């Protein structure tokens, strides 16, 4: 598990804008209803960029709702999605939700369907809507965020925090092995003390992206653990602040 229920996302360095959030139920292309949380920029001019947030294995909960609001306060329309509409429904769940059996039933193709529905939602907002849509994910969501950029012309860039880029636990090939399929830039963040993702795995991802000619930046913060991007982990506040800067710069540079 990536984040506990008391975790809080760090504040972005560029913030202060007004924003509001709302709970939603979206419908995927296979007819599945799933929960989501959208955060909107309160401004006269529609935000040109939007981002789909892919949570860790716990699915949609407070951390990711607040993160969506943080993006909106920084001027980026945001929507955080839940993975478990097909197996747990779209209604609210308690803190005792046993998420792991539902994680095991997710599939990359159904996650991609839900991301596509969230992307369509961002582009349907009043005014111009989000012209450029990005994804960001954490742990399980980090890997899934990387996967959204493979051959997908609707995604402007993908961002991952501590997402496994190599061979999965189930033996499936990952972003490293499929690097030649990317059609967008990649931004990745890793903890140097993360016991689950080795420096060698990050290096292999970097080499594969370079060989494929994919624009990318992979940043490892020495001594930082898995899940360092958390307001309560004050000792890694500088790393979190730096990650925010890179994310917002990445979004701005790749928004058309």
Description of the molecule:
The protein has 256 residues and is of the alpha/beta class. The chain has two domains: 19-130, Alpha/Beta hydrolase fold, catalytic domain (Rossmann fold, 3-Layer(aba) Sandwich), CATH 3.40.50.1820; 131-256, Alpha/Beta hydrolase fold, catalytic domain (Rossmann fold, 3-Layer(aba) Sandwich). The chain contains seven helices and eight strands, in the order βββαβαααβαββαβα. It has an eight-stranded mixed β-sheet, with helices on both faces. The protein is globular and about 45 Å long. The termini are far apart.
Pick out its properties.
256 residues, alpha/beta, Rossmann fold, 2 domains, 8-stranded mixed β-sheet
CATH class term of the largest domain: Alpha Beta
Shape: globular
SSE order, as H and E?
EEEHEHHHEHEEHEH
Q: Which homologous superfamily in CATH is the superfamily of the largest domain?
A: Alpha/Beta hydrolase fold, catalytic domain
CATH fold descriptor of the largest domain = Rossmann fold
Return Rg in Å. 17 Å
Percent helix among the residues? 25-40%
Compute the separation of the termini in Å: 35 Å
| Uncertain residue ranges | none
Total beta strand runs: 8
Biggest sheet character: 8 strands, mixed
Counting helices, strands and paired strands, the structural category is: alpha/beta
**Number of alpha- plus pi-helical segments:** 7
Number of structurally distinct domains:
2
> What proportion of the residues form beta strands (DSSP E)?
15-25%
Assembly state: single chain
**Mean pLDDT, rounded to whole units?**
94
| CATH architecture designation of the largest domain | 3-Layer(aba) Sandwich
